[in-house]
Model the fold of this input.
Amino acid sequence: MAEKTSHPPSDEKGPDLGVDGESIPLPSASSSSSSELPSECVSKTATIPPSAPLGGVGAVPDVEKNGEVSLPQDALPPPYSVFSKKMKVFIIFMSALSTLFSPMSSFIYLPALDKLSDYYHISVAKINFSVTTYMIMQGVAPMFFADLADQIGRRPVYILTLTIYVLANMALALQGNYAALLVLRALQSTGSSGTVALGNAVMADIATSAERSGYIGYVQAGAMFGPALAPTIGGILTQYLGWRAIFWFLVIASGIYLAAYAVLLPETCRKIVGNGSIPPRGWNKSLMDIIRGPERHRRGSDDSQGQPEGQPTRSSHIRFPNPISALRIIVEKDVAIVMLFASIMITGFYTIMVPISPVFHDTYGFNQLQTGLCYIPFSIGSGIGSILAGRFLDFNFKKMARKIGHPVEQRRGDALRKFPIEKARLQVIWIPTLIGACCVTVWGWVLQRRTHLAVPLILLFISGFMISGAMTMQQTLLIDLYPQSPATVTAAQNLCRCLLSAAGTSVIQYIIDGIGLGWAYTLVGLITMAFIPTLFPVLKWGPEWREERFLRNERKKEQAQREK
Done:
């Protein structure tokens, strides 16, 4: 048999393999002895569909009993990820857990605003500037860390950002100056905000398009549960231990997570470890990697067909993180539309969450702990909506793939160049968006009429469920459009939605004071509804724009190769 060569892990954006129905001649008798391949089959040809994975160079097809020719199993390309199922579950759990820190740091702080105003002897409006600085850095910082993570791997960036976060919380717990509060809140945001982008990037590292939506749903759920837990915890700590206890709590929680991550979590970045079969180096190694050596939580040697160990996996030159790479993504036609819609959705999300404490205090006379509990229905609904939306997207992907005859490769990755991924992800997004916008509108009026408490809480649950479901659909599509730079595309989206959310949250209270709760949230609901039609161009022309981008990138690669 011809010698089989190893090759790098499969990737979703690899080149197309041939033409439909192409006849590929079998090797001649001179290249294979009669004992290896029957002579009556030498002159025949094998018809291999374009979806069939091709093996290594020189691999000889097997001959089945019915005379049909097929490629041997060992000639198939390597699996998309060699991490075991248990390890994938653990990675998903830890990634979802890490996404709690960014929203938790934002919302755990809200019940303490009145206390901080009294402590610094300044107005609540000035204290709100610390919320604004937090949200601005929440949008800007991930652009640097995402690009760095795509260069050097997820582990070093996770460890760096979490270390910054732990130190910032310690300083916040000890400081006693308003200027220091503003600066340290920005630093706290810098450390925590990268976790959402990194979590989505990890999901793209280990999951194909056929199963990625469900994984992203769990990560999004983690980000949504943060606002549920944070105000309740913040209210209890502020009321019984004082506002400094909030930051000591975050120090302890993030410190424990950082220690567990450093010891247990493997590197997943495909530029560093391929499909997981390439041993990591330096900071990319976890303590478990060092202890276990080559075993490293993998399935088995039969599936671990990655790059050879001696082959370099990344350039020794690491450039300074470039935020322009995220800005370039934003200006693509399909991406710009999806990100604009996602930013409107998240702005609606924050215009509900931020004023809940003063609104429920004024409407129902609740104390800090009681208003903290009122966040729970909205965030539980958001978490459940994210998970169920992810599962629906996986189902819809497979359904559409069967309908058009597209192979679903859960282990080896899917070539999405000819697949209508926009339709698979956004086909029904208008339903949860419309229902969520209606709930937001009604929510404002029931609060203005001071109805029974159960009514606004139920509406909060439904609106959270619907809004987060729509956001998961958009987030999954963006990662499908840029599977090679998932952290960067997530950071780009984060920039858009955080800046727009910062603007929305800074004016929502003035709008409520000016026109009342009912008309204020009617305005929010109507704006959300008005942007639903903006997604129709993506459904219609998205595949064409994606193909244009693919051809443009191919031309750039060819030009770069000619210049070398």
Summary: The chain has two domains: 1-72, 85-308+320-556. The two ends are 37 Å apart (CA to CA). Confidence is low (pLDDT under 50) at residues 1-71, 296-313. The longest helix spans residues 486-530.
